[in-house]
Design goal:
The complex is a heterotrimer of chains A (about 270), B (about 260) and C (about 260). Chain B has 8 helices and 9 strands. With about 260 residues, chain B is an alpha/beta fold. In chain B, helix 3 (about 100-110) packs across helix 4. By secondary structure, chain C is an all-alpha fold. Chain C has helices spanning about 5-25, 35-45, 45-80, 85-100, 105-110, 115-140, 145-150, 155-195, 200-210, 215-240. Chain C has one domain (about 35-245): MetI-like (MetI-like fold), CATH 1.10.3720.10. The chains are: A mainly alpha (about 270), B alpha/beta (about 260), C mainly alpha (about 260).
Chain lengths: ~270, ~260, ~260
């Protein structure tokens, strides 16, 4: 109990302090306009944002003003992209670890490509795919997949390679075949590397889905909402959409952590 | 600080006790330790795991705080002695900084004490020569073997000329052959410098070979079982380990160890 | 550089197949231009690309990166001074780093206007958190033995920081710096998707894509890729020089054995 308190109390204090600074800054910054009455404050106070957020959440779920609806659209693309990246990423990681040639020719490109700003190609991908008739979820999912692909591949490769020499040697003394080495040693060992990579990949999938909604003037999704709010100068809606996007990211990370928790329990306490 | 100006008594412990933790999770590491170490002695602390030998060494170094009794180092509290840089500490691992070469590692304490560059250089070279590592002064720690790294850490401990040398199983991680060489080396170092040394070890032959006195400790709670004099004389070639006198002292130590530790 | 042989060969093969496929199957340039077409577009648009590069990279990315990383480092040092602060700030900063920070771009535009300042601000915020988290983690890295050693020398906290903790933290700081160059570049470009004066890589990409003038988009993407790689590998080289002592950088390390 003391341990739990020791860990959470500082966080609560820091968050409270940040909220207090935010509130004070809002009052100062908006003073010329008379903050609390203003509909388009330069810096809304925490409660104004909370109010707009709540209003957005409480809308009927199919209405275009509902933040839940927009979050759902974004989440759908992110999830589809993540799933695609997951399957391809793990497949490629297994291939890389087992085929020396792939490792030496492909892996450097994978690492190098992380330095290329993938989001910069988002408009092009959306437009090109739109031209061949693929609109809506597909281009967004592809961009999300592209972004989340790399953390999955790199973490999985590191994980598959993590067993120590002596563990591999032990299996050799059992005359274990390639499949056994993979299934009994490499795959289980890779899990503790994979999950942190999946957390990063999940947040990137959300970012990718949001950014993919920008170029085409899409109507639905949190990115679209951000864009629309910024065009029409609707400050509060802008902040509310941003907070919603953050909540989505938190939920997504929570899901990955939850999955990890399940696996930990199945494994008997440790990954 | 020339040895002559110092208190002839280096360390006195009186009824020293040290308990870790509080409430229901109390671990008594040391209880009722009475020990006097004179200037110029080489005292080994030996005992099984958990007997408090490392804790006692760390208490002398002011790296742990006693919870009872008194402890005096160079006539001062351990904290004041530490502030005056009274001792050099050698750990179980070399603890060298990999971003510094050997020479600069030895100079580390001298930088902290604010010595001039020329002075630092001179002392580092002198102490590296003392441990026989002058020719690797420009190498980096990861380019040296484990034994050589430990010798560098010894040179570093000696570089600021402390009045006391505290060593915590410094050769424990090394193989026996390297260990033998280092034991000989350390012994000759002690003979040359006359440095008061407190040495923690697991190894009976090592303790008997190096020491003028051997303090046998036992665990749960850590206390002194027996203090055995080890008067094998100042000249100690490695062959001395085959002599009957050596074996006799070793047996006494072994008996004291067994007496202190109830066996099944 | 023998290790570079395989990936270079692989890259060339892919380029060759790409070029061949485009010419053989007459793939429309709107869908996928051939490498030669991209290079032509690159050469043919140099003034434009140059202006965009100046606006985005020189005016937005670099200042944003410097500001965000610098602030992250300083705050990291400050947070490190108090264990309470460390326990409170670290989880919050880690969480913040996982959020879609690019979304603050419209707010930055509202505060700082359409020009490079708002884009630099986005880059700064994005680079702040990884640097903060890594600085604190790096300062904590040295083990008890190394710290006891300095305690035995009665070293002051400042000396401990200068002689032990900062050098030991450098690997972590470089990890953050490398990540930060990528984040700053992405942040600035994506921030331009939200509105910018009529110059800038992000602006160019989004408007030319909408006009289906994909040659320019590919050329801009090429510039972005080269910039991102140059920054990253430049830092990696610097890292090698400064943290030469890391086990990972020693030849014959165990990493090779599988």
């Amino acid at each position: 109990m003391r341990e739990a308190l020791r860990r959470t109390l500082p966080v609560i204090v820091v968050v409270a302090a940040l909220l207090a600074v935010w509130y004070a800054a809002a009052l100062v910054v908006d003073a010329p306009q008379g903050a609390l009455a203003e509909k388009r404050p330069l810096l809304p106070t925490p409660q104004q944002v909370a109010g707009a957020l709540l209003a957005g959440i409480l809308q009927p779920p199919t209405s275009p003003r509902s933040l839940i609806y927009h979050a759902g659209v974004t989440a759908a693309s992110a999830a589809a992209g993540f799933a695609l990246a997951f399957v391809l990423g793990i497949g490629l990681a297994i291939a890389i670890v087992n085929v020396r040639l792939l490792d030496r020719s492909l892996m450097p490109w994978i690492i190098a490509s992380q330095t290329v700003p993938a989001l910069a190609v988002a408009p092009m991908v959306v437009v090109v795919l739109g031209n061949i008739g693929l609109t809506g979820l597909v281009p967004k999912a592809l961009i999300a997949a592209w972004l989340s692909f790399f953390p999955i591949v790199t973490s999985m490769v590191a994980g598959l390679r993590s067993p120590e020499r002596i563990q591999l040697d032990l299996l050799r003394t059992y005359s274990a075949g390639g499949w056994d080495v993979f299934a009994q040693l490499r795959w289980p060992a890779s899990m503790s590397f994979l999950f942190p990579g999946m957390k990063v990949a999940a947040t990137l999938a959300v970012v990718g889905a949001i950014v993919a909604e920008l170029p085409t003037g899409a109507q639905a999704g949190l990115g679209a909402r951000l864009l629309a709010a910024s065009y029409y100068g609707q400050t509060l809606q802008l902040w509310a959409a941003l907070v919603m996007a953050s909540l989505l990211a938190v939920v997504v990370v929570g899901v990955v952590d939850g999955a990890r928790g399940v696996l930990v329990r199945v494994r008997g306490g440790r990954l | 600080m020339p040895a002559g100006d110092l208190d002839p008594v280096a360390v006195i412990a009186n009824g020293l006790s040290l308990t870790f933790g509080s409430g229901p999770e109390v671990t008594p590491a040391l209880e009722g330790i009475d020990l006097t170490i004179l200037r110029g002695e080489f005292v080994s602390l030996i005992g099984p795991s958990g007997c408090g030998k490392t804790t006692l060494l760390r208490a002398i170094a002011d790296l742990e705080r006693p919870t009872g009794g008194t402890l005096v180092v160079n006539g001062l509290t351990p904290e004041l002695a530490r502030r005056q840089r009274a001792y050099g500490y050698v750990f179980q691992a070399p603890a060298l900084y990999p971003w510094r070469n050997v020479e600069r590692n030895v100079m580390l304490p001298l930088e902290i004490m604010g010595l001039s560059r020329a002075e630092r250089r001179e002392r580092a070279q002198r102490n590296l020569q003392l441990v026989g590592l002058s020719d690797v002064a420009r190498r980096f720690p990861w380019q040296l073997s484990g034994g050589m790294q430990q010798r560098v850490s010894i040179a570093r401990a000696l570089s600021f000329e402390p009045s006391l040398l505290l060593m915590d199983e410094p050769f424990g991680a090394l193989d026996e052959i390297t260990r033998d060489g280092l034991n000989l080396h350390l012994h000759e170092l002690w003979r040359t410098t006359g440095m008061t040394t407190v040495f923690v070890t697991h190894s009976i032959p090592e303790a008997v070979y190096l020491s003028t006195r051997i303090v046998v400790m036992s665990p749960r709670p850590g206390r002194i079982v027996e203090v055995i004099d080890c008067d094998l004389g100042a000249e100690r070639p490695l062959e001395i380990r085959d002599t009957p006198e050596f074996t006799a002292i070793g047996s006494r130590v072994r008996h004291a160890l067994h007496a202190g530790t109830p066996h099944a | 550089m023998r290790a570079a042989g395989a990936p270079i060969a692989f890259g060339l093969i892919v380029l060759g197949l790409w070029q061949a496929a485009c010419t053989a199957f007459h793939i429309p340039r709107i869908l996928l231009p051939a490498p030669t077409a991209i290079v032509a577009a690159f050469g043919g648009n140099l003034p434009l690309l140059g202006a965009d590069f100046v606006q985005t990279v020189l005016r937005s990315v670099l200042p944003g990166f410097a500001l965000g990383s610098g602030a992250g480092f300083i705050v990291g040092l400050a947070v490190d001074a108090s264990p309470f602060l460390r326990r409170g700030v670290l989880p919050v900063a880690s969480l913040a780093g996982a959020l879609p920070i690019v979304g603050i771009a419209p707010i930055m535009v509202m505060w700082f206007g359409f020009d490079w300042q708002s884009k630099a601000a986005v880059a700064a915020v994005m680079t702040f958190f990884p640097m903060l988290v890594n600085t604190v983690a790096g300062l904590e890295a040295p083990g008890a033995m190394e710290r006891d050693l300095l305690r035995s020398y009665s070293a002051s906290p400042w000396q401990t920081l200068e002689k032990l903790r900062l050098p030991a933290a450098l690997p972590y700081i470089f990890t953050a710096l490398k990540l930060d160059t990528t984040l700053a570049l992405i942040g600035a470009i994506v921030a331009e998707f939200f509105g910018t004066p009529t110059v800038g890589m992000g602006f160019r990409i989004s408007t030319e894509a909408a006009r289906l003038d994909l040659d320019v988009v590919w050329a801009e993407t090429l510039v972005a890729a080269i910039t991102g790689s140059a920054l990253f590998f430049g830092l990696a080289y610097l890292e090698r020089l400064v943290t030469f002592w890391r086990p990972a950088f020693q030849s014959g390390s165990e990493k090779e054995m599988r």
